[in-house]
Specification:
Helices cover 65% and strands 2% of the residues. It is an all-alpha fold and 187 residues long. α1 runs antiparallel to α2 (43-72), α2 (43-72) crosses α3 and α3 (84-114) runs antiparallel to α4. The two termini are 18 Å apart. The relative contact order is 0.12. The mean pLDDT is 94. Bound molecules: protoporphyrin IX containing FE. Residues 26, 29-30, 33-34, 37, 49, 52-53, 56-57, 59-60, 101, 104-105, 108-109, 111-112, 117, 119, 142, 145-146, 149, 152 line the site of protoporphyrin IX containing FE. Protoporphyrin IX containing FE binds next to α1, α2, α3 and α4.
């Protein structure tokens, strides 16, 4: 029976939906960002950058909602069968990912503002600039944005590697805590 809230054993369907939605959008966002950044100066580049900026602000809003849900619904603790150091590393990775998923889009928004590339959210809402146009500042925020998203990519690689190890090497059921279906016995 699916449950909305997290239990002590597993994530509820709201936390699972946030997790997989943010995962898919962040992957798409990486692809669109790299693609747009490598296009020659053109209308197409502006259009793809516009999708990237709109999607990025959408991700920021979703991550803030997800964090609010997490505060109201603490995640199920990692089981004692996992060594303490692994539980600590996994917890630190999760917390750092949350911080970066807030700070990296903010750096992108600061960059777009300083570069004079104001965001019109999917052509629907004119989003205010965070700072006035300033070329030098724009270069600083651009480097910050790229550095932070590179760090997200590294942490995600460790996160996905760890999850796959639980699913296919250890088969300890940790991966299933984030999946809407459960095996009859331990995976
Ligand atoms: C989780 C959210 C985000 C991720 C994962 C992300 C990721 C990326 C990536 C991978 C690139 C390409 C870097 C390169 O190859 O040079 C990029 C570029 C860029 N991003 Fe983001 N981004 C996010 C949010 C945002 C937001 C919210 C904005 C603005 C509102 C933004 C504005 C930009 C801009 C303007 C560029 C182009 C840099 C250039 O001029 O070359 N990003 N982003």
């Amino acid at each position: 029976m699916p449950h909305f809230r997290n239990s002590t054993e597993s994530y509820g369907i709201i936390a699972q939906a946030f997790h997989w939605l943010v995962a898919v959008l962040v992957f798409a966002q990486f692809g669109i960002g790299v693609y747009a950044a490598n296009l020659p100066v053109s209308l197409a580049r502006l259009q793809w950058l516009s999708y990237h900026k709109s999607l990025g602000l959408g991700i920021l809003a979703l991550v803030l909602l997800r964090l609010a849900w997490r505060v109201a619904n603490p995640p199920p603790p990692l089981p004692d069968v996992m060594p303490l150091w692994e539980r600590r590393v996994a917890g630190a990775n999760h917390r750092l990912l949350y911080v970066l998923l807030v700070v990296a889009p903010l750096a992108g928004w600061l960059y777009a503002s300083a570069a004079g590339l104001s965001v019109n959210w999917f052509g629907l809402i004119q989003v205010p600039d965070l700072v006035a146009k300033d070329r030098e500042l724009a270069e600083v925020f651009k480097a910050l944005h790229i550095g932070l998203v590179a760090l997200i990519a590294l942490l995600l690689a460790a996160h996905i590697g760890g999850a796959l190890r639980h699913a296919f090497v250890r088969r300890d059921g940790i991966m299933h805590r984030m999946l809407p279906w459960k095996p009859d016995r331990k995976s």
